[in-house]
Specification:
Elements lengths: L2 H33 L4 H11 L2 E2 L8 E3 L2 E4 L3 H5 L1 H6 L2 E6 L5 E11 L5 H9 L11 E3 L8 E8 L2 E3 L5 E7 L2 E7 L6 E2 L4 E3 L2 H10 L7 E16 L2 E14 L5 E7 L5 E2 L3
Length: about 270
């Protein structure tokens, strides 16, 4: 396939995606114009208090972001032998909607009891252990004592999505293996747009019945998440991720909100 044809395919794909995103934003904007202004901010905050929902200090500061797109890549499949040999790992790369690398350490890695996350970060950032490891950033709020989550950062954009993630498995103080996905490059599809604030994200989730009574918001983060696939391209959107804990069960659920359109993102 010659260069001009490849270039033309990219143009067609991105024009189609741009039209779709514009339509989607218009639809969501109409929905939230009708539901998001009821009662005003002060009344919403009173309702949240009446429902016994505890909130952290929420910023009203806004920022900017854009829709981003990536093409499929075979970087993990092509290069996994580098760490399989140097890191003494048994590796399998699974192909699905996106490539997933599953690694088992042939000799487990012993961890000290204190500062486990720091030790794992050092291990991840060693190129002998993990492909592109320096691109991954530890996410404490998404991790547990047995599963340590690292999110990929691409051109300064944090990917909080299964497609750009590294999950390390720890058992009885030993690192036993990990699962990795990887986003190679990201292209900006549209001009930067204003993103809603933390405060707006939480109140919108409450008004959408995504935050129930007798609960507490324990953390909130902003990052990029998957929107859709079209003709070999994957589109990512800036989103707010909100951790909500039930005061009764202590179970934590994660809610997602499109930071541009205010649309609630449902997990599939």
């Amino acid at each position: 396939m010659d260069f001009r044809r490849i270039e033309w395919i990219f143009v067609v794909v991105f024009v189609a995606l741009d039209i779709f995103l514009g339509w989607s934003m218009a639809q969501n904007q109409r929905v939230y114009l009708s539901t998001g202004t009821t009662g005003g901010t002060h009344q919403v905050m009173r309702d949240i208090s009446d429902d016994d929902i505890a909130l952290p200090q929420l910023s009203t500061k806004t920022s900017t972001g854009a829709y981003l797109a990536s093409r499929g890549n075979n970087a993990l499949e092509k290069n996994y032998q580098r760490v399989a040999k140097s890191g003494d790992q048994s590796i399998n790369v699974n192909k699905g909607d996106y490539a997933t690398l599953d690694a088992t350490l042939n000799s487990t890695y012993a961890l000290r009891k204190h500062d486990v996350a720091a030790q794992l970060s050092d291990w991840v950032h060693n190129p002998k252990n993990v492909l592109y490891g320096r691109k991954y950033v530890y996410q404490a709020d998404l991790s547990s004592n047995s599963s340590y989550v690292f999110a990929e950062k691409v051109n300064g954009n944090l990917i909080l999505d299964d497609r750009g993630q590294l999950i390390l498995t720890v058992h009885d103080g030993q690192l036993t293996g990990y699962t990795q996905t990887y986003v190679d490059k990201l292209l900006t599809m549209r001009n930067d747009e204003e993103l809603i604030s933390e405060h707006d994200a939480v109140t919108t989730l409450y008004q959408s019945n995504e935050i129930v009574a007798n609960s507490r918001v324990i953390w909130i983060h902003k990052g990029y998440t998957y929107l859709l696939d079209a003709k070999g391209s994957t589109v990512y959107i800036p989103a707010w991720f909100v951790g909500i804990e039930s005061k009764n069960s202590k179970n934590v659920s994660i809610k997602k909100l499109n930071a541009i359109t205010k649309a609630v993102i449902k997990s599939h």
